[in-house]
């Protein structure tokens, strides 16, 4: 994975490239509604009830097959054989991993698991270097999750709610094995019994500052502070040094190159200021301690980085004091389990991820947050759905509305979003509006991007007078080369119909992002009058939006209905509606 950052008040993080979904993760997220944020504690409590059954089965070969198709061996003899071949005399401790994550691979040749965390840890310790950690994951519907033993030490973010722990072991050289993705390990969150203090290190020096990584970092950081654009070089060298900090500790790095290490601390502080006040305070304390020691040794701190980090912290404090940062969520939602056809499995929308996202706020922030659910599945929906959604979300948002949006032929996000912009809320728009699908974690990778942009917006730190429209999904589309997002007959016709123009651009001129997940400041929403949104809503809600896009009469194919073709063709140029140029820049090269 690499990381990209966005100026104007938020350093968004962690773009994980090319990572597949875990095979053990269920497709739907609806099953986790109400459990997100408490899954670890709930699973511990549920597992305690079956402690006696598990202990009785320790010496048996018990195989359990999960709904995902994975098979796990509970307390089989094979684990003891692996322990004899792979165990070490390491001193190990356990570190929880931040957020919903899973660890890849199985510990050893067999997939093994336990139903309580203490027994899973014992088994993992016995396997030595073959076991890198534990992931708590669902297995069967209605049953307690399993603590599965994992062989990989690089946590992957997941929207499904898994919880992971890494085994950090003392090696002969005195170092600890640690997390490869430094952004996921919670510093200072080790198990009880570890005092959290690093061993005494040599005083700060600059003896290693001539090394390539520190020299390249210094140059890339200078470019970032002057231009606001994060380069690939900064991502690479920052990640490299953060990993070493996870392995060896900040004091060891300060002893090698104090100026470079202080620079890394400032960049990390700037990233985490909106996300975790505890982590920010811990990093700040490390920075100030290192700065004090460096000044005593007459080493100069990086002034530009200190200015950037302090500016972000002031922006957050001033924003909260001013009352800026009201946020609306507009969600395209279908409250029934359904298959899109073509052999695809059933999917079910759920908003557990939104509960988790909003739960970090205080009562004061609740008053700045509203949720508008646009239901698209009509009479087939459970009549108790609206009440259930309100019960789940009202603790975190002072307004929760669930409205049905009727289409002659399904237009999904097109009419969901336009109904909001053309309805009563058009006279009472929030400072920021997040337009999202109910399965947003499927489209926003990493999900921390949404988390950090939301927290920065709600804190008031983002400047609504200068911040642009922003896509949140990860799949960038160049319509000049994308096969399925521009039709040479229908797309120009749709363009002329929506914008009232006599011509349409060539497809090669239009670039945007897939999947219709974005955030828009109020001033951009107001660039077009309410009547424009109402006309567009009427068009997409009518069957005419399908009929007019095809030259052969009023026939609509199954594929067009399944793909919601009119909405699909509009998908990569929503940014034009809100005042962006035809070619929307990729986020990581956009200095705004």
**Overall pLDDT:** 77
Could you tell me how far the N terminus lies from the C terminus, measured between alpha carbons in angstroms?
A: 23 Å
- Based on CA atoms alone, the radius of gyration comes out at 26 Å
User: How many strands in all?
Assistant: 17
Task: Please give a structural write-up.
Residues 1-60, 76-89 and 172-200 have low confidence and may be disordered. The chain is of the alpha+beta class. The strands form 4 sheets. A 7-stranded mixed β-sheet has the order 1-2-5-7-6-9-3. Helix 5 packs across helix 6, helix 6 (232-248) packs across helix 7 and helix 14 runs antiparallel to helix 18. A hairpin with an 8-residue loop joins strand 6 and strand 7 (146-150). Helices cover 37% and strands 13% of the residues. It has helices at 39-48, 51-56, 77-86, 117-126, 212-227, 232-248, 250-256, 258-272, 277-296, 303-322, 352-358, 363-366, 385-393, 413-422, 448-458, 490-499, 522-525, 530-541, 544-547, 558-563, 565-570, 574-577, and strands at 62-65, 71-74, 92-96, 101-102, 112-114, 133-137, 146-150, 156-157, 163-169, 327-333, 369-375, 399-404, 432-437, 470-471, 476-478, 511-513, 518-521.
Which descriptors would you attach to this protein?
592 residues, alpha+beta, 7-stranded mixed sheet, 6-stranded mixed sheet, 22 helices, disordered N terminus
What's this entry about, in short?
The chain has 22 helices and 17 strands. By secondary structure, it is α+β, with helices and mostly antiparallel strands.
